Amino acid sequence: MQITVNGKRLECKSGQRIIDVLNSVDIPLSQVCYHPQLGPIQTCDTCMVEADGKLLRACATPASDGMSVMTSSPRAGAAQREAFDRILGNHLLYCTVCDNNNGNCTVHNTTALLAIEHQQIPYQPKPYAVDLSNPFYRYDPDQCILCGRCVEACQNLQVNETLSINWEDPHPRVLWDGGAKIGESSCVSCGHCVTVCPCNALMEKSMLGEAGYFTSLPKTALDGMIDVVKGIEPEIGYGAILELSEIESAMREGQVKRTKTVCTYCGVGCSYDIWTRGRHILKVEPEHGPANGVSTCIKGKFGWDYVNSADRLTKPLIREGYKFREATWDEALDLVARRFSEIKKENGPDALAFISSSKCTNEESYLMQKLARAVIGTNNMDNCSRYCQAPATTGLFRTVGFGGDSGSISDIEQADLVVIIGSNAAENHPVLATRVKRAHKLHRQKLIVSDLRKNEMAERADVFLQPRPGTDLFWLSAVTKYILDNGLAKQAFLDEWVNGVAEYRQSLAPFSLEMASERCGLPVETLIQVARTIVEAPSVSILWAMGVTQHVMGSDTSTAISNLLLVTGNYMRPGTGAYPLRGHNNVQGASDHGAMPNFFPGYQKVEDAEIRAKFEKAWNVSLPAKPGLDNHLMIDAIHDGRLKAMYVFGEEMSLVDSNANYVSAALAKLDFFVMQEIFFTETCRFADVILPASPSLEKEGTFTSTERRIQRLYQVMEPLGESRPDWEIIQHIANRLGAAWEYMHPSEIYEEIAPLTPLMAGVTYERLEGYKSLQWPVAEDGSDQPLLYSKQFQFPDGKARLFPVPWSEPSNQQDAEYDLHLNNGRLLEHFHEGNMTYRTEGIKQKTPCTFVEVSPELATERGIESGSWVQLTSAYGKVRAQAVVTERVQGKQLYMPMNSVEEPVNRVTSSYTDKVTHTPAYKETSVHLKVLGERGANPLPRTNSRFGQPTPQKGVEVERKWKRNDYTQPGNDLVQIKIG
Ligand code: SF4
Ligand code: SF4
Ligand code: SF4
Ligand code: FES
After folding, report:
1. How far away, in angstroms, is 18 Cα from ligand 2 center?
2. Which residue in 287, 292, 265, 266 sits closest to 275, CA to CA?
3. In sequence order, what are the residues at sequence separation of 6 or more whose Cβ sits closer than 8 angstroms to the Cβ of residue 903?
4. Which residue's CA lies nearest to atom 8 of ligand 3?
5. Tens of pLDDT along 791-817?
6. What's the whole-model pTM score?
7. In 610-767, where do the E strands start and end?
């Protein structure tokens, strides 16, 4: 298609909005409310153009072939200025003393673009106070131009549905929960609204008084300066005032550094710029992230205070008796090298074990496994994917060949049906969940959720199943059998792409709907509804997480999910596939890069002589052939006296491993234990040497997210004190043990990884520059595979395999003594045990401690109220916590978030594991509950978002603005385009 803009012909696509055509070729046009990631909102009217003689909003009008558009005709220009003048009636231009004056303020830039010299409509303050009640951001109604971007972002992108505008009020403003204080609303502090606000009405508190040269002046002085600006404006006009503020803004560039990084919390892989002034973090600014765009959650947007925490380890520590003393790096490293050598000499290399961090970089995991294998000579190497993801990987290895998500987050977004099993995605993978919520709200995506708890996604689901704990495999297999038995399978797909159909079909004999109903406690009709919904959907994506994997049947249930997808032909197309949601930011990457007992990087088997020979040649050593101990077996080996020394970095093992008392007892038995950490964690208590490491903001490298997306992070600030990046520390240890590594930068480590690892053959730092990313497998020429199985499955004949899985009973079931089921998991606000997130004061205020969720029926039966102290006892230990009575849990099921160092839920979890991978069966825990007779306040304070009352609506609802008596269309013949 072609259109003419200001007399010049331009190519465009059918349906493309005029504004997008103009922006793609940098034709300037004012556009205050438009944001490409939000779509047209139509509140500001500043984008008016003349198209084929009609006055139209360019943001809402699709281009049509042959259309003639004028962006600055007298009519269009007058309408734009009139519309912008109304905006300035809501906003005081005090740019020089505004923390938002950083070259990207839309109001400032539009004033300059439209060459506004004087305001026709005088500025009028609104009769509302500034709201500072959220710990992280403020709302200033007097600066709010009512563009509604924030509302659109909250309603339709984050889909928290907190924000609205009271368009009918004489003085409209943005409302939280229809009029609550921000700090007492349903706002989850995701920051979407703050990020998209085009001016300073919504601002991060960390920016206030910190970004500009004059913005830290006392309020009275600031007010005086603002009055001066107002006073001189009639005489000198905005042009001169803006020039002055632009000089100030340019001066800031030397002070304010913007650095791209990748989130260090969950596996979604959000990336963003971090703005810093010195070590002060001004803000997190998401925009270009391939996984997240402008989206973040509370942790990525506001959870960074830990980096500058006074608790950071800044010097090496060496144990002396029951105490630690500070040491020099040389002293600490020499001691590590000496003890490792002695223990290896006395007991052999397999007396040592190594655990890599899923929070650290790919390069660091690679070096850790190289240290274990090439320098020490052991395959005793693992990472925390053992605690969560290994069963999902096994299920995929068995059926489709690669142990990674089959597509991208965009595939999940475009699926016709999303099925979520055992995953509290809205809290654990918040930004990924927003894409499902958005598609469900706006694009008729269907949603089935299976979970023990009525979490947010369950509340939103079209079908919500609450099966008995640990029975997902049964209902999944029964639904698959029903589909096969009733001729509803995708036969053509099975014929062409799948092996083992007949054998698999036979294996399903025990899984009748009736048996499933009995085992799982689900009505037969519901199971049929699930089966029918799945087969009727043109594309299905299944998401799962630890509610599936952390069971004795974790691998088998993951396999059953993949089997169901194969039977229904839901692989090999956009919008389909299997999505085990990876928990830590780099849990995928740690395994991909060889931090496993049986695999070199890229899942190349250590037992394979040819593969081993390749690594032996590259590393110039001979390598052990026998797979090593995984981290579950390591604990047993310490108790048995076979394992004498361990080196762990970035892993709070003593709290996050199951049966924590047993794990702690093992760590206490080690002859020599090296911890590498950023804080003195609980696990550090058992160490002999503690090495101070640098968090992600202080180093470079790459992370791999849940969608197999490899992204670069850049150094934001120097390591604090004497702390060092983990890769440097590992290198120092290796070299003291006789290696001669000379890596000067993580890019050099990747130059070694790529040629040794076919899965990453084409990964280079240049190809990952800035916001560029690659989704493995990456061929040598740099081409990657966002959709994993587009041509074939990862088996020699290219076909997938149906893999029969039997049923077995969950472990550790309730009995007369331990009569309640205890479930556990994360919370939105905290990551894991909270070593990082508790160091952000605002998060601590909102969610100060762990608690135990109790159903209303159990609370009545046992006389429990929110705030009652209870003790949970299992066969393995005890924890104390306060109760929260909530309908999120049902019957005799309890839920305890894992965010506690003092009362970690893993004191009561068991040592039962998944049969195949040894992933602990964290979700199979039975406890006895004792009411302790004390009662305090609800452990969730009133300011927690869970008490809010959201106000769902379609979006900003601009039609209500247009109905106002005082609204007239700028220009007199505007053509209204209806939204949606
Ligand atoms: S949830 Fe809160 S921070 Fe997130 S967009 Fe809504 S109002 Fe803004
Ligand atoms: S607070 Fe909301 S409505 Fe007000 S200017 Fe910012 S984005 Fe627009
Ligand atoms: S924690 Fe996860 S969802 Fe939140 S910003 Fe980080 S990567 Fe994104
Ligand atoms: S950009 Fe605001 S109405 Fe078009």
Report:
1. 24
2. 287
3. 850, 879, 880, 881
4. 270
5. 999 999 999 999 999 998 999 899 999
6. 0.96
7. 645-649, 672-677, 689-692, 701-704, 709-713
